[in-house]
Structures are given as structure tokens and as C-alpha cells.
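The aim of this short unit is practical: by the end, you should be able to scan a pair of folded records and say something sensible about each. We start with the first protein, listed as its amino acid sequence and then its C-alpha cells.
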Amino acid sequence: HPDDKVRVQQTVQHTIETHEPFAHNHRIVTPDGEVRLIFSLGHTVLNEQGTVIRLIGSAQDITEQSNLAEQLRQAQKMEAVGRLAGGVAHDFNNLLTVMDCHVQFLLQDLDESTPQRLDVEAIKKATENAAALTRQLLAFSRKQILQPKLINLNDSISNIESLLGRLLGETVTVVTRLDTSLGQMKADPGQIEQVLMNLAVNARDAMPMGGALTIQTRSVIVSEMQAKLRPGMRKGPHALLAVSDSGEGIPDDVRPHIFEPFFTTKEVGQGTGLGLATVYGIVKQSGGVIDVVSARGKGTTFNLYFPLTSGDAPEQAQHYAVTGGLTGTETILLVEDANALRAVATRILTSNGYKVLAAENGEAALRVFRKNEEKIDALLTDVVMPELGGRELAAIILADRPDIPILFMSGYTETAALGKLGTSRGHGFIGKPFTPEALLRQLREVLDRPRKPPAP
């Protein structure tokens, strides 16, 4: 490779002059223009007078090993950034819940004609935008709330094809090539459409003078060897979604960072840097794998692999309609370690007739429960708390009160937050941030569910 040629020559010359063996990596360019990474080692052979008579060495093509190691490093980096983003979004959701609920309190007390109402509604709009931002962060960290169903990828593309035309403008031509034999996959249809939209917008931005956006699907079988070469991929049948543009391609120094949250090459104010990060998170949370192929002057292709599945649609969790009002007279054990959020939840419940026993953590909640076990009608608890979390607290209380209604709160997904102790066991779940009405409705729904009779 031209950039490595001088270094290799200097290394060999140094070995000839000093008789020190060499071992290094360098690139070569094959006759068809492909760049490969080579590991070379060698040493000198001397005659009786100590003169170099030959140089002996070997060369090994380590391109695939290097690529695999780089993929692993990138996956580990993205995992670490994802944990950070998820933690920030979780804490931010607590703050947003407090802000949004106080905005609702203010709106309840202000008449439509009050001048200050416009200011409060502007704050409400800002909190909604902030909540959308945290959802994108949670999407990247694979902890957003999804509603997976059995879907056909072709249907998702057809659903937004006309919208893409309006979104991309007249200078971009949309071409679809869909495999009609494509099987079913399990994913949230709304999030898959979000993936398509984000990739389409990214492609449009890569073609400022216009061009072609090609969306292609096909069924592929991933072998065990192919799965090993792509971290996170499983062997077996997959749906491949390939989204290609005819732009200028992604520079080599930019490509390692394109999925990182808030990374953008656009000017300040022209983008959040969360478009591709959101795509990455949704694909990963849906059990898929994403990679990118790009060449300067030849465009970019994003390849998304989703495992195919078979069988009937999964059984949906039961939901019970709230037929009465949202008020109540029951006694609620409220557990939340964020002081401001605990105060807001207490205000919401008590102002609607409920009695509240509040605790700042799991240990304190257990003490309150032991003293008031017979009075408590339901448990409303955060999931992520120091020392004794919501899941562990619920398990202890359920051992004494198997029929107690439980409503979990979390800024993470239900699956990430609860694991096996989810709503499939009849418990409720509400994601943060939430409004006062949403909390009251979810709590009322849990309280009104029919109770299983105790085992004889």
C-alpha cells in the first residue's frame, strides 16, 4: 500500500543493518484493487564472516481476524455508550415526570383565558420534546418500550412508501425490490417504520444533489461460520433489509462513529446526531444485526438482518378497561427513591381520594408493609432503586400477599426492568415519564382486575 511502503522498506533495511528480526502489520493492494492487511515477520541469514546473505520471512493475511477484532471492539464500545445513554435517559425520565405532572397541576388551575396558560403550555410542549429525546436515547441503549408482533418486512415498507416520496422530495428516486417469499419476523411495526424513515433521511442528506434510494428485501440463511464473524448474529433464516443510496459514501474516519449518539457531521442546529443511533438500538433490541458497506464516490448500503420466525401471533397480555372513574379510596404503598417524584405521585393519588403510605426505598417499604400489611390494597413501586429494587421488594411482598395488585414504574422497558416478573403475571407497568391521568388509569386498571381465588 502506498501509505505503508516507506515504513516497510525502512523496517527491512533496519533488520539488514542490525540483524534484528522484524514483525509488523502492513497493507497491500491486490491486482483487483482490494486492500488486505498482512502480518509479516523475518530475519537475516549470515555467512561465516557475518555478512547478510539472505533475508528469510513469512507473510500471513490477517484481514478477517483484524476485521473481527475491530467489530468486537466496536460492539464493546457501543455497549458501554449504550449503558451510559440508558442511565442518563432513566434519570432524565424521573425529572421529566416531575416537570410534566406539575405542568398538569398548573393547567388544571388555569382558565383557558388566563394569559399565563400559553406559557405553561409552552413548557408542556418542551417537556414532550425532551421526552421524545429520551426515547431516542433509550432506543439506542435498547431499553425503550416496544410492542413486538409477527410482521412481514415488506408490509412495513409498503406502509410508508408513499410517505417516503413526500419526505425525500422530487430529487430523490425511491426504488423498492421486495422478496415476495419473505417470511415473518417479530418486531414492533412502528419502530421498524422508524428505522426505515431514519435511514431514508440519512440517505437523502448524503445526496444533496439528488440520487436514488434503493430499498431491498430478501430471505437469507446465515451459516454458523457467518454468525461467528458478526457479533450478535444467530445462525438460521433471516430477513435482510438493504437500504442503499447513490451518494458520495462515508469517509473512513467517520465510519467507526456513525452509530454513536450525538455524533453528526452536520452543522450546529442541523441535526441531533441520534438518527442512526436510534436505528442501531431498535435493530439490536429486535434481535437483529446491522452493518454498513460504503465506498467513496460509490454510495452507502446499510444491511439489516432480522431473524425470521414462524407460528401464530404471540398471545397478547390481557388489558382490563377502566369502566368507572379514576378516583379511589384504597390504601397504596408508594415506593420511589427520587424525592420529587415521590412527592408528585403522592399528590396525584391523595388528591384523587387514595390513602398513601410512602417509602423512599425498598427497605423502608418493607418496614411500612410489615406494620400495615392488612391495610395496604396495592403496591406502586419504582423498579430501579439502590440496595433493594422493586422486583426484589415485590417478590418478598408477594410471598406474604400473593393476591396484592402491583403497578411497577420505570424509565426502562418492561422487559428490561422486570424480566420474568412482568405483566404476564397480572401486574401492571407504566413507563416514565407519565401524566397524572396515565398513572391514575393504570393504577385503577390494576386494582379492578379480577383476583384469582386462593389455592385450597
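Turning to the second protein, read its sequence before its C-alpha cells, just as you did above.
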Amino acid sequence: MGLPSAGFSVTVRLKIQNKPGNFLKIVSEIAEKEASTAEVVLLYSDFNYNIRDITINCRSEVHSRRVVAALKNLPNIELLEWRDDTFEMHRAGKLEVRGRTLLTTTDELSRAYTPGVARVCKQIVKSPADVFNYTIKSNSVAVVTDGSAVLGLGNIGPEAALPVMEGKAVLFKQFAGINAFPICLKTQDSEKIIEIIKEISPVFGGINLEDISAPRCFEIENRLRGELDIPVFHDDQHGTAIVVLAGLYNALKIVDKKLENIKIVVNGFGAGGVACTRMLLNAGAKNIIPCDSVGIVYRGRKERMNPVKEELIQLTNPDNIKGSVADALKGADAFIGVSRPGAITRDMVASMNKNPIVFALANPDPEILPDQISDIARVIATGRSDYANQVNNVLCFPGLFRGALKARAYDITAAMKVAAATAIAECVTPDELHENYIIPSVFKAEIAKKVAEAVERAAIQDGVARTKAAR
């Protein structure tokens, strides 16, 4: 069932008789129910009783209800109220719109709106590039989904996808100061999605595609990149791939190996696996063995192939080996899993080369739990926050878009992605680098800034920037 997590936390408000031992009963009951006390706040106290808010991390929604019921039945303690903290955070949404200018006089109103605003409109007609100087476009991103492949939830539709897109917009603002807008489309027709995004693009400096199912996501992104003059980025593909490459750079420093010399198995050949493979190739990897639900992808295979797989197999699996993921892992130096829980076993990891690197990134349950291989794998990463080395896209997309917006880039190139990965890796200093710290904390303050600077430089070098030089 997993460890207690803030994602399933509840806060209970308890009226406790002011007698020695009563608070200990509460803490002991929480521990006995295998939950974790996260925070305690004293709201009121007198000679007879006190009132406390206690936040408790639980394992699941069902588990949280059991914990609340157990506390309700304790003697000398009254449950006044309780709340599910995640739902409380989402109440009425996580976003709001605020003006950058506070209008307090008629003069200010005349400048912000009519008649003064007409002068700015005329200037943009005269010089269309000034839309970046005088509107929100210079610092705005659309976060667009059709709700067809949301997290591990699948095709849940646009309304149910909205909380995720709101969360993404919050992260853009928190980590890079970018104004992001959640846009959930009530269509899964690729042509309609492409057309809608093109029609709304004048407002935005960039488009972040999110949670759109494969293989449609490839076509949508490729078409939009060719038809728009602002950067388009499918984060589920490239964000994961960039952070994977950053982590792999640092893992290879620990095991003293070179990217161009190692054998890498990529398991899961959907959007994430394809993007990881392309990213690794762009970074210089020479021996990548892609695997999917059928097994190793090889030249000449007929089962469950598509144009994307056919394209990439020309650049991977140099010896054209066949078989299962177990066969692929024999003698491999690194495993990158973007597939399903339990996809590999301890014996498979044991068959890998000396000092194996294992990135088991399936969420919420990885391809293999770190505890099962901690004695044989040298470096392990997952997509979860309750294990070391979390591969988290928030390390990438805020800084990447910040750099692209500063450069006023019209595309995001392979070199910009590699630059982002390198910058993330370099945020782990040589003194900090360790098997359990190859990927920096998302709360390390300088990450977005360093990624943005690296991406802006790469955009200018690749000739996709409207600006002349990095600031």
C-alpha cells in the first residue's frame, strides 16, 4: 500500500481534555494505525481542555478514513471536524487572475483601457513584434490537454484533467514566474486540436502539450512545431527525457563510465520511451535497446510496430538482437523504464553489467522497487518522491520555457533540450554527488535560472531566437 504521503493527508480538529497522557494517546493511535503525524497546531487552551489541529499523512483515502474513525472513538477526546487536505487545497481551484497594475484613479483606467489602450493596439498593428513588448504574450504559456492520457488515470476527459493542468500552471508561476493557463479541450480529434491551438496561439509565447495519448501526441506536436512561430513542447515526452538524461549524466560520473560506451535498455516505447531514446541519441549514446510490451524492438519485426518505431529502430539496437526485456538486460549498463509496475525482476538486474544503473520510472509503482535491488544496483532512480533520486519534470519545464521566452524562440531544438539536461545535472555539485543524490531537489532555488540561461544560449546558437544575445 506504500508509505504515508502528504497526498493522502487529513487534518483533524480535536478537543482534548487537559489531562496528562491524552495527547500521547492520540499520537500512539496514529502510529498504531501506521499513519504519520506531520504537524500539530495548538488553537486554544485553558484549564479544562485544549483544541489542536493535527495533520496526519496516510497511505490511501481508505486508510485516512480509518485513522479518522479511530481518533473519533478515543476517550476524553472529541472530534470537532476534519478535512482531506488535498481536496481542501483544490477547493474553488488553485488559480486566479490578478492585474499587474492596481487601478485606483480614472487616469490609470484611461491608460489601462479605453481610450489609451487604443494607442497600444495601433502600435502592434504597425509593428506586430511589439505584441511581445506590450502584452502578456512575452511571459505566457498555454497548458493544453484533451484529457486522453492523464497521469496514471488514463482517458478521463477534459473536466477531470483540469486539476492537473491547474497544478501545472501553479508550478510554472512558482518556479519560473511564467503565467500559464490551463486549456482542456472537449475533443480528441487531432485535426481539431491542432486547429484550436493555432487559433488561440496569438495570446501565448509558448505551448505546453500535456497528457495527450500516443501516438496522436507525436503528430500534434510535429504539426504545431511546423505551423506555429512559437515553441511547442510535449512535456510528457521531452520533460521526462531531459531529467532522465540529467540523472544519467551524474550516475555515469559515479560509476565512471561514458555515455557513448554503455549499453542502455529503454523499456516502454510510448511517448516517454521514444523521447528518452531520441534524447539519448542526441546526447551521444550509441547502443540503445528499445523494448515494448512484445519484447525487444528490432529491424524486421512486424508485431505492434508503427512509423515512429520504424524510424527509431534504424538508429538503435545496432546488433539487431531479438528476445525479451530479460534478454536485453544481460550485460546492460543502464535500464530506463517508462513502462509498467513489476516489468523487471531482481534476477534481471543481477544479469546486468557491473555497477548497474536502474531508472524505474513507472508511476505510481515502479518497474521494480528500490528495496528489492539496493544491494546490486549502484544507482537507482524512480518517479516517486518517497525514494531518493526522483525524476520530476518540474526540474525541467519551468526553466526551459523561461529560457525560450527570454530568447523569444520560435522552436525548441534538440540542443536546447540537451543544454537543459546539462544545466540540471550541474546543479548537483561534486561535493553533493552521491548514489542517492544524482538529481537535485526541485526546491533548489537556482535550478530554473540556470536551465533558463543554458536554454537561451542554445536557442541563440541554434538560430531560433528572435533576440540578439543572451541577457
